[in-house]
From TrEMBL:
A GO term, aspect molecular function: zinc ion binding
One GO term describing the cellular component: cytoplasm
Domain SET: 239-521
Keywords: Metal-binding, Methyltransferase, S-adenosyl-L-methionine, Transferase, Zinc, Zinc-finger
Protein name: SET domain-containing protein
Top-level taxon in the UniProt lineage: Eukaryota
Pfam families: SET
One biological process term in Gene Ontology: methylation
Length: 654
């Protein structure tokens, strides 16, 4: 089981119990305190009285466990066998892949266990025709303290993968080398194994391994959206839009010139993102690409990376600090929203060279800036990747209202940052026990900062969902430039994703001077007004006054997904409607291609041309039928559905 060492033998479970009991105490503190500052002081005073608080200081969590890794590998073996027996039930192999990946995440670095988990995943990847990924895993199996009696097995697998790949590349030298190595290490096997592998070796050398094809990965290079003219001050937005401020709308984005449907308005990578649950095993936590031969963090079992480069970059940018905090908050069962807050604060601390004093200085300056059109801008630029931009998203009008959970978790994250990482502050002494910290102004400042970041995340982070048959949540991300758009239930831009990049494209003609709206909750076609308004208020704390809400537009379609019956009704209407029908078919076939791209031999249909055609149809319908006509709105819906759906490939392995 888990190895947990503490001086006072306070177990994690006891701590969890204590945390729950403390909930009541905090509620009392909140009730009797007249201000936020007094509230925090009261809570800290009470926490300091409890011995469990200071025990966190001495707690160490060892995330890697040979036993747990071995159990997960066994689970993987079970699914692998199931898959071999029933090769057409594709879920078996996918489950085996996931269990082996978890096993790798949990194995101690440079252990036999890690080597054998990589070895098993290499086998399944080879089976799934992911030969290059299999080769990566074989190399990891060999490099991580591989027992000599296992090496023949891996070199033989290596030769097999290379041999299949030799149909497209010339690698005879590498294949021969792998066979030589396989032969060389056979001496370390026991008699039975030696006989078995001598036979296998002979068979494989004489087998031509006909070209069985290679697993088809989604190719992101097929369509790379680009911003034609980048905005000088808002680097992730197009120059066709600008930033305005008004009391009613706050900061918002408007069209500086007439915008045609199909025009790309924004392309942005998130400041921070956290993949939900097991999605962490499928996507690189740093660059967001789907991965198969992933690498774990050496210290925690939470984050996985697509490459050494991403692992190093992540460690430099945030993970070296974050890792020490995440290990605890994972054990304490904090929800995903605290993972993303931890990511943001760690990134910000690294940006400030690990000095809380520098960070405080920088953020105080943003706070002092009274002009909302300048707040968060550094050298007149609202960067995607700077904490100043994130911090400026804090609405000044929102009254701070924290429940006991936010209080205890923000104190916990701050305390972990102070005691488990190398952050420095001139105001905090080296003796960092809770009793000393409870009155420390820098510690209290850090707690309040974490609380502000929780508020910012609650109202600005987006939940990105994969589409297809069963939509699944992919990740929670926070974007800076894109956070400047206001919401509408009948938006003028639609979003699509490429890895973690969010792309906004105009789906309606937007006249010069008009505000540009994005939809970050529900569309008027998908949900009744009262449901939309409830959700918007619950998550984003505002009452929507968009045109669909004000005029109470009906939900005409069952959902916003394109409905064939309805467009058939308009068939033969006139030339535009005919073209509309054709465009709808083209859009649908692109989406179908994306959902099933592995089963298509031919190339992706021409996306750019289809988008241009759709843009043309929408502009004409707008002109001929009017902006409130069902024809026009249906076309816009279809366009919106297309952007949501077209670039979300099927994740599962089969
Ligand atoms: Zn990566
Ligand atoms: Zn880690
Ligand atoms: Zn609305």
């Amino acid at each position: 089981m888990e190895q947990i060492t503490t001086d006072k033998e306070t177990s994690i479970n006891e701590f969890k119990k204590w945390k729950e009991n403390f909930d009541e105490c905090i509620k009392e503190c909140i009730k009797k305190s007249s201000s936020h500052d007094i509230e925090i002081n009261e809570i800290l005073k009470n926490l300091a009285l409890n011995p469990a608080t200071s025990s966190i200081n001495k707690m160490t969590i060892v995330s890697k466990s040979k036993t747990i890794s071995a159990e997960l590998k066994m689970k993987g073996d079970y699914y692998f066998c199931g898959g071999l027996r029933k090769p057409h039930e594709s879920d078996y192999f996918d489950s085996a892949f996931m269990e082996y990946t978890k096993s790798i995440a949990n194995a101690p670095p440079m252990s036999h266990q890690l080597s054998s988990s990589y070895g098993k995943r290499a086998e399944i990847l080879c089976r799934l025709k992911l030969y290059t990924d299999s080769l990566n895993d074989i190399q990891q199996a060999l490099d991580n303290n591989c027992p000599d009696n296992q090496k023949t097995k891996y070199y033989l697998l290596k030769a097999k993968c290379l041999k299949v790949l030799s149909h497209s590349i010339n690698n005879d030298h590498d294949i021969n080398r792998a066979y030589q190595d396989a032969k060389y290490w056979i001496k370390n096997m026991n008699n039975n194994m030696r006989k078995k592998y001598e036979k296998l070796l002979f068979e494989q050398i004489n087998d031509n391994l006909i070209d069985a094809g290679i697993f088809k990965k989604w190719n992101y290079d097929k369509f790379i959206p680009i911003l034609n003219n980048r905005h000088v001050n808002l680097p992730s937005l197009s120059d066709s839009v600008g930033l305005k401020y008004s009391r009613r709308f706050g900061r918002h984005i408007f069209a500086k010139k007439n915008i045609k449907p199909g025009e790309i308005i924004a392309i942005e990578r998130p400041y921070a993102k956290i993949y939900y649950g097991d999605m962490k095993l499928r996507f690189c936590c740093h660059c967001g690409e789907q991965m198969w031969s992933s690498l774990p963090c050496d210290s925690c079992n939470i984050m996985m990376f697509c490459s050494n480069k991403c692992r190093d970059d992540a460690n430099d940018d945030y993970h070296a600090i974050e890792c020490q905090v995440l290990k605890f908050i994972q054990k304490f069962n904090l929800q995903d929203e605290y993972f993303i807050v931890t990511r943001i604060i760690c990134k910000a601390i690294v940006e400030a060279d690990c000095s809380l004093d520098t960070l405080k200085n920088d953020l105080d300056k943003i706070h002092a800036e009274k002009n909302p059109l300048k707040r968060g801008f550094v050298n007149e630029i609202f960067e995607s990747n700077k904490i100043s931009s994130i911090y400026s998203l804090l609405g000044h009008s929102v009254k701070d209202n924290f429940n006991s959970k936010i209080h205890i978790n923000s104190i916990l994250i701050s305390y972990l940052l102070i005691t488990k990482t190398n952050v420095s502050s001139s105001g905090i002494l080296n003796d960092r026990n809770f009793d000393n910290l409870k009155d420390n102004y820098m510690f209290i400042w850090l707690i309040k900062l974490v609380q502000k970041l929780i508020l910012i995340c609650n109202t600005n982070s987006l939940s990105l969902v994969g589409f297809g048959d069963k939509p699944e949540g992919l990740f929670q991300g926070i974007y800076t430039n894109i956070s400047l758009f206001n919401h509408s239930c009948c938006p003028t831009v639609a979003s699509s994703t490429q890895c973690d990049k969010l792309i906004l494209t105009a789906i309606q003609p937007i006249a010069k001077g008009q505000q540009v709206y994005y939809n970050y909750a529900q569309h008027y076609r998908a949900n009744e007004k009262k449901d939309r308004q409830l959700e918007l208020f619950k998550y984003y704390k505002f009452i929507c006054k968009c045109k669909a809400c004000e005029k109470n537009w009906p939900v005409e379609l069952e959902n916003s997904k394109f409905n064939k019956k309805i467009y058939c009704f308009f068939f033969n209407y006139d030339r535009i409607i005919k073209k509309f029908t054709n465009v709808c078919n083209d859009l649908s076939s692109i989406v179908m291609y994306c959902e099933n791209f592995k089963n298509y031999d031919d190339e992706l249909p021409d996306i750019l041309k289809t988008i241009n055609d759709a843009s043309d149809v929408i502009s004409k319908l707008y002109y001929y039928c009017g902006k409130n006509s069902s024809e026009y709105l249906l076309a816009v819906d279809t366009f919106e559905w297309f952007f949501r759906s077209w670039n979300t490939p099927n994740l599962k392995l089969s």
